[in-house]
Amino acid sequence: REAQTCIANQASRKSLNAFISLAGGASILRKAEAADTQRDRGPLHGRLIAIKDNICTSELPTTSASGILKTFTSPYDATVVKKIQKAGGIVSGKTNLDEFGMGSHSKCSYFGAVTQNDASRGEALSAGGSSGGSAVAVATGQCWAALGTDTGGSVRLPAAYTGIIGFKPSYGLVSRWGVLAYANSLDTVGVLAQSTQHAEAVFEAINGYDEQDPTSLTPTTRTRISNLLSQRRRNSSLRIGVPLEYNIAELSPEVRCAWIRALELLRNQGHTILPVSIPTTKRALSAYYVLAPAEASSNLAKYDGVRYGTRAEGPDGAEGVLFSKTRGQGFGDEVKRRVLLGAYTLSAEAIDNYFIQAQKVRRLVQQDFDRVFSLANPLLDVRRTGRQNTDERVDVLVCPTAPTLPPTLESLEKQSPVEAYVSDIFTVPASLAGLPAVSVPFKESQGQEGNIGIQVIAQYGDDNLTLDVARIIE
Ligand code: GLN
């Protein structure tokens, strides 16, 4: 029944361009029926799960919304896809995104932009990016939940813009094996869902050590973290931090108002609200846009028409012609911009001034967070210095996910790339520090136009706490 509704919605909402490929109604229904006859039912039994198209599936193509991979089908399933299926979930299709995950509005796609309808304004609104296809698929009932990837906010931002839950787990908890790398030191697989409960169910299914991913958190470290968490004395009343630097001039009044209302709601439930300082917030954005393109330029080198990618027509003559022609035709403008930027910041001439500096800022961002959380970072030596007084430390941070409401697609035409990067200002810091963060839809007032997301960030490994707080706000 549920599967049928999703399939009907997929047909009636085709114009939103949420999917690049669909599993097909007949195949889904066959799997749903087969699932019904099974005796041991998994936690995602019969649920339709959409998969972002930069995650490998053997049954459907994996294009990463790039011209260079337009004909690629992976010979294997990513670990997360296997885990979804093992839990009883059915892969319903592959969702549209910004090419290789580079973007904040899901408009830089070889297959065209994703949109979300705005009934009141009658204009096409940004779905957020880069997991915009996954977000729209969930928000419009085309699937039960979806997987996205979050490198600098790509799960949280589209969740905020489309009014759903978007959860990015701590870096290393969920396997990246079979996930096309954008910036691998930042890439995480996240979940988009209608409710925190659904997001949690999917997270539980995909969370776990994978020996095929060298950055996967080992069982020993996982045990150490859960011991640390169980030793913590959890008060029913939480200490909620408000990062003062997030109150930027670019914050739209509606979003600021929603932030205040969300904090009031938490205070009325008996939690304590405390101002905290994350001084590196603005520099974090600049550092991200040096580090992510640098890693991207290296990760995307393999798409050359020989190892991977649709090869350009013509003779394979003088050295480099085949590569440059293939890459020139296959990549979109934003990807080319990032590859060039990354190649430059990694060059001998620029590395000290850009890449190395950005790495240092990244470390400062991590230290900023460690200073404000009462839980010590389980990945670091707890005896280090510089921690704030216990009375000043907090359990979670609560702030907006994005500085504005979803913009219209038309208004984005006039935006420069740098202006577009500002929409990531609140999501990038948690990515640089590898922290868990969730975006929760929040209604500031009854007549509110457009969706607003409130973000909850916690210390590394404290993923369940972010979801607990999300549940209060939702
Ligand atoms: N908008 C950011 C970028 O373009 C984040 C993308 C992501 O998280 N994949 O890099």
UniProtKB/TrEMBL annotation:
Residues 10-467 form the Amidase domain. It is found in: Mitochondrion. Its EC number is 6.3.5.7. The keyword Nucleotide-binding applies. PROSITE patterns: AMIDASES (PS00571). Keywords: ATP-binding, Ligase, Mitochondrion, Nucleotide-binding, Protein biosynthesis. The active site is at K52, S130, S154. The keyword Cell inner membrane does not apply. It is an enzyme of class 6 (ligase). Pfam families: Amidase. Belongs to the amidase family. GatA subfamily. Allows the formation of correctly charged Gln-tRNA(Gln) through the transamidation of misacylated Glu-tRNA(Gln) in the mitochondria. The reaction takes place in the presence of glutamine and ATP through an activated gamma-phospho-Glu-tRNA(Gln). NCBIfam families: gatA. This is Glutamyl-tRNA(Gln) amidotransferase subunit A, mitochondrial. The lineage of its organism: Eukaryota, Fungi, Dikarya, Ascomycota, Pezizomycotina.
